[in-house]
Amino acid sequence: MALHKVRFPDGSPRHLLFTGSWDKTIKIWELEASCRLAIADYKSGVLLNTLVGHTDFVKSLTLLPRHLVSTSSDRTIRLWDLGTIAQLGINSVQTVQTIKLHTRPVDRSVSATRETGKSSECILWTADSMGVIHVWTLDPALGTLVHVETIKGHETSVTDLLPVEDGLWSGTLHSVLGSQNTVSMDKTAQYHPFGSTKRVSIPHDSSVHSVLLLPAQITTRSILLTGSDDEDIRVWESEDDWQTYTMISRVVGHCGPVTSIKCGVSNGEGVRVITGSLDGTLRSWTFSGKLYL
Fold it and tell me: Is 265 left (phi over 0), alpha (psi -120 to 50) or beta?
C-alpha cells in the first residue's frame, strides 16, 4: 500500500492510494479527505484504475519521485511512471521498466533519499525469499532504476527492511530446507552499514518479522526494537554503532507474531511506538528506558 498526493494545474490536490493484491493487480483509489489541521480523515475511496502487468502476487509497493515500484512473486520489479497523472489523467500510468534480476519472489522494497553533497540521491532496496537484497538508484534523467550492488547475508526470506542514516536494517524468517528438514539458523536482525562489507547479525529464538530503530524524538540512545514469531518485542541497545549490543528487555503483550513496528503521533502524547500482530490487535507504547503500554 502506498499513498500519493497529486496537485493538478488548478492547484487542487488529489490523494491517491495504491494497493497491491494476490489477484496480481495494483488498484488506484482516490480518497475523499476531510482535512483538519495536518491530519487527513479519509472517509471513502473510489476505484479509478487497475494496473495489470505482474503474473503472480504483488508483494510490495514503494513510492519514488514521480514513480511507483512494485515487486512480485513473479520475481520481477516493475517501475511505473506517475509523472503524467496530473496532465494526462489516471489512465496514463504505464510500466516504464521491468527488471528480472531476482531469482526468487521479491517480498520487500523500501526507499530513502540520501544527501550527496549539494544534491540528493534516491535509493531503493529490494529483497527476495532467498535473503538476497539488491540496491538501486533512480536515474533522474532517464527515469529508470540502475543497479548499484548486491547485499548477501541472510539465508531465508527477508521480512522487513529499514534504512537508517548510516545503513540498512533487515529481518528474516526461518525456513525448512531440503529432504532432511534441516532448519535454517538465520532468524536474525542484520545491520548493513553503508560503504562497508561488514555486517552485524543479532540472533533471535524465532523468526524476525519487524525492526525499528527508535528516532531522536523518542530517545537519544541507540535503541533497536525487533518483533518476532514468538509474540515478543525485544529491546536492544548499542553504544558503539552496533559492533556490540545488549538486549535490555523482552516485552510480552501480543498473542501472535509481531509483524509490524512503527512510530506514530498520538494527540497530546507525542511520538509513540505502534506494534501490529497476527493476533489482530494494534498496541501503542511509550519508551522511557523500557516499553510501556
Answer: beta
Q: State the DSSP H helix or E strand holding residue 5, giving kind and residue range, or none if neither.
A: strand 2-7
Is pTM beyond 0.85 here?
A: no
Pair type for strands 106-116 and 291-292: unpaired
Range name among 47-61, 108-122, 202-216, 265-279 with the lowest pLDDT average: 265-279
**pLDDT computed for residue 113 by the predictor:** 87
Higher pLDDT, 216 or 20: 20
Q: Distance between CA 275 and CA 217 in Å, rounded?
A: 17
Q: What is the mean pLDDT of residues 12-33?
A: 85
Pairwise CA distance, residues 210 & 149, whole Å: 24
What does the alpha-carbon distance between residue 133 and residue 106 come to, in Å, rounded to a whole number? 9
CA torsion sign for 256, 186, 149, 166 is: positive
* DSSP state for residue 175 in the 8-state scheme: -
**pLDDT at position 214 over 50:** yes
Q: Can you tell me the distance from the alpha carbon of 139 to that of 67, in angstroms, rounded to the nearest whole number?
A: 11
- pLDDT value of position 256: 93
One DSSP character per residue, 77-126 reads: EEEEE-TTHHHH-GGG-EEEEEE---SS-EEEEEEEEEEETTEEEEEEEE
Identify the band that residue 176 occupies on the pLDDT scale cut at 50, 70 and 90.
very low
User: Is 271:263 a contact under the CB 8 Å cutoff?
Assistant: yes
CA-only gyration radius of the chain, Å: 20
Cα 166 → chain centroid: 17
